[in-house]
Amino acid sequence: MKDTLSQDISAVEAKYEAQKIAFGPITFQCAMTIRNTGILKAVADSRKEGISADDISKKTGISKYGVKVLLDMAASMKVVREENEHFWLLKTGYFLLNDKMTEVNMDFVQDVCYEGSYYLEEAIREVKPAGLKVLGEWENIYKGLAELPEQVRKSWFAFDHFYSDNAFPTLLEMVFKNPPRKLYDVGGNTGRWARLCVQHDPNVEVTILDLPGQLRDAKKQAEEAGLSERIHGHQIDLLDDNQPFPKGADVFWISQCLDCFSEEEILGILKRAAAAMTADTRLYILETYWDRQRFEGAEYSLNATSLYFTVMANGNSRMYHSRDMIKQVHAAGLIIDEDTDDIGLGHTLFRCRLA
Ligand SMILES: C[S@@+](CC[C@H](N)C(=O)[O-])C[C@H]1O[C@@H](n2cnc3c(N)ncnc32)[C@H](O)[C@@H]1O
């Protein structure tokens, strides 16, 4: 057996890593605060010159005490560098300030997850989204999505859209290589993909299968875009195995949606989809699998996102290993005839048909 312990970091390094975890919530709030107050931008704008706490205080209106206490921590976090009472931006600081993915993830953690994450242990022990109570009294977050407080809703959608928007252009080309006439978008949310599809192809009709709140939003947005003629809604509770899927689709499209369900629930959804398919129907599953990522940072983000599902969303779902999803696809009587990685920011597309 390989001696994995000897490949580990030194005890001193490990103790340092452990402190980063111990103070993790505080370092996160420090990063949010230097971003939101303009302190980090003031450091960035000073470029090679560097800038003193006094000058940052004048620029931002934050007390010198506030600037110093935050930036001393930011220096420990290797976000900035401090020398001779001046501060310079380091690369991590650059990404905190300018990287869209980092911005979207930080806002999602702050507005959707932060307060509720305190209840993670309860969520794990009781297999329920124990943190959701800080946002409202719903059984799961999807039932409350249309009614979330405005800032929470904004950050939730920015997070959801950021990842799918990056993948959608490539996906349109892939799905419309054999143009479907009827596409059913399972968990189609507010209809972003549906609108893109009808704009891409003048002959396609899209039906969104989702909960009533999301269908209301989707209808409104389709009307505002003048696209409501070919975008329809079909109300369904995907958790209810007694609600069959409508028949007649050339394509079932399930994007970033199965991660909202447990493996058992996924099987129920896929079985109902399979029951509504013919030999010519194709079912697409778009997901981000943590084992299919090229970058360690992406794998890290996905495993962290899983815990959002645990504590805030529904208590029993996650970002899956591709192996676990493939098992459910097969158990539902489907086979994958095309498997494509690295779409957008780390998405994988399975094209499935009846076995
Ligand atoms: C993460 S969003 C995915 C949105 C979109 N497909 C995309 O790719 O960006 C998950 C969607 O699944 C829907 N959903 C979750 N639970 C559901 C349920 N029990 N019944 C119907 N739809 C559900 C949510 O309302 C939401 O629109």
Short recap of the structure:
By secondary structure, the protein is an alpha/beta fold. Helices cover 49% and strands 15% of the residues. The protein has two domains: 5-98, Winged helix-like DNA-binding domain superfamily/Winged helix DNA-binding domain (Arc Repressor Mutant, subunit A, Orthogonal Bundle); 162-296 and 311-354, Rossmann fold, CATH 3.40.50.150.
Which labels suit this protein?
BVU_1015-like_N, Arc Repressor Mutant, subunit A, transferase, 355 residues, binds S-adenosylmethionine, single chain, three-stranded antiparallel beta sheet, elongated, 2 domains
Low-confidence residue ranges: none
Please tell me what the overall shape is: elongated
Query: Mean of residue pLDDT?
Result: 97
CATH class category name of the largest domain: Alpha Beta
CATH topology of the largest domain: Rossmann fold
Number of domains: 2
Q: Would you count the extended β strands for me?
A: 10
Q: Mind telling me the C-alpha Rg?
A: 23 Å
CATH superfamily placement of the largest domain: Vaccinia Virus protein VP39
Which range does the strand content fall in?
Answer: 15-25%
Number of helical runs? 15
- Ligand species: S-adenosylmethionine
Strand order of the largest sheet: 6-5-4-7-8-10-9
GO molecular function: O-methyltransferase activity
Domain O-methyltransferase C-terminal: 179-321
Organism: Owenweeksia hongkongensis (strain DSM 17368 / CIP 108786 / JCM 12287 / NRRL B-23963 / UST20020801)
Keywords: Methyltransferase, S-adenosyl-L-methionine, Transferase, Ubiquinone
